[in-house]
Amino acid sequence: MATPESPIPITLLTGFLGSGKTTVLNHLVRTLPRTAILMNEFGEVALDHQLLQEMDGPMALLSGGCVCCTISGSLSPTLKNLWMARQKGDIPAFRLDGVVTTVDALFGMGQLDEHFEAVKQVAVADRLLLTKTDLAAADVVAALRERLATLNPAADIVTVTNGELDPAAIQNLGLWNAETRSLEAMRWLKPQRYQPASASPLAGKARPDLHDTRIQAFSVVIDAPLNRYGLQSALGMLTSFRAENLLRFKAIVNLQDELQPVVLHGVQHVLYPEVRLDTWPDDDHRSRFVFIVRDLEPEFVAKLLADFSGAAHRHAESAMPISPS
Length: 325
Fold this sequence. Notes:
Elements: E1 8-15, H1 21-31, E2 37-41, H2 48-51, E3 59-63, H3 67-86, E4 94-104, H4 108-114, H5 116-123, E5 127-131, H6 138-151, E6 156-160, E7 176-177, E8 182-183, H7 185-189, E9 195-196, E10 215-222, H8 228-241, E11 246-253, E12 262-267, E13 270-271, E14 275-276, E15 287-294, H9 298-318
Parallel strand pairs: 1-4, 2-3, 4-5, 5-6, 9-10
Antiparallel strand pairs: 7-8, 10-15, 11-12, 11-15, 12-13, 12-14
Helix pairs in contact: 4-5, 8-9
């Protein structure tokens, strides 16, 4: 629960049609009665919200089908009104705690084959909820788990039966852990689960026309401290000219002339404000990035980061005044 001084955590629950979102919500409503729910429905007749059982808390219904398209319309004032209804005074910031995606074990394979939207939902998730496993054959579930782990190595997979879910499974998914009141960079980053960019199985190869092969998850590690200007230029180029290809990235970086590490996070064209850690979370002080991209070569991303930072560093050195002997 957020205090008046702390940001309110927001969890985005998404998933393909019929994958069990409403069933999960019904369970969460009973378990977390003080949770506010904003449902986004598409079409002239909204039905899903009528399927939710009675709840002790506010619910707002958005229309239009896509939250990103209505953020300047109904979403922003709805969030504001929810806060104002709870407590008068200044409105603190909201923070995205995590993205949770439901995946249908029975029909998930076919949905991933036929609909790129389903692949993208899996790729950007912080946590995957595997539903209807009791209806699917064991070998199908095993194959789907392997496929999900390839698309999104960092997202833990939680099996959900009849919507029953421990709320703790979808809380504290972001950098900030509200329970420990600390920043947990390595739990959030999970760099060990990603293959290096140079080891990507499709790097430099022609891609078959399959949805999964359009998505690649990889890591980039840079040994030398990075020039801030060069790094900003590289990330700015990605978010400006390759926003549709950059699904998500996370990083903990070592910047020149700074003792503390900086955490970065971006989704497509949005670069979130940097977070400065008090200390390094481990003994490895190299800059570590993890990316999930679409139709973008891992080697290109790695070279862009290295080249821009190196060029900026060389430019800064050449611009330094020479002291007279």
